[in-house]
Amino acid sequence: xxxxxxxxxxxxxxxxxxxxxxxxxxxxxxxxxxxxxxxxxxxxxxxxxxxxxxxxxxxxxxxxxxxxxxxxxxxxxxxxxxxxxxxxxxxxxxxxxxxxxxxxxxxxxxxxxxxxxxxxxxxxxxxxxxxxxxxxxxxxxxxxxxxxxxxxxxxxxxxxxxxxxxxxxxxxxxxxxxxxxxxxxxxxxxxxxxxxxxxx
Length: 200
Known about the structure:
alpha+beta, PH-domain like, 3-stranded antiparallel beta sheet, elongated, cytoplasm, DM10 domain-containing protein, NDK-like_dom_sf, cell projection
């Protein structure tokens, strides 16, 4: 999956942990070693080792991407940044982001849809539930203004809440289109019965 030179055998991420007792956000370098799947952590502010290199079964490389949350010894750590250029280049080269929206007629099935998204190998970087106004719908669907279906489209997306998601995986755009299935529901049911549009 990742192209590595012989001298590069680890990826480094900046992670944050909210210390409730001190009311502080603490930042660490989290290093994942590919040779033996071990990790270590370095306290950035205090410039000292926080966790010596150790095997930790709860962490896999697939869990580490911008926006993900991992738990290490009861601490919930959020991955906020790649700590070096090598890690960033490796992940940027292998991953792609795409936007997905669950519309009013499907959001009651959001749990099932998210399960399908995970099963298809996606990670969810961001997720937000909100409701369009006529103005925001007009901005979002501006390219369709003047078309015969535009008024019905605006009425539909403003009728209830929508859920926006930022999805990440290799070839995310193509994979999301395949998971969605054909735009026409009947065609989706016939040609891609396991797709989201066919099921919901």
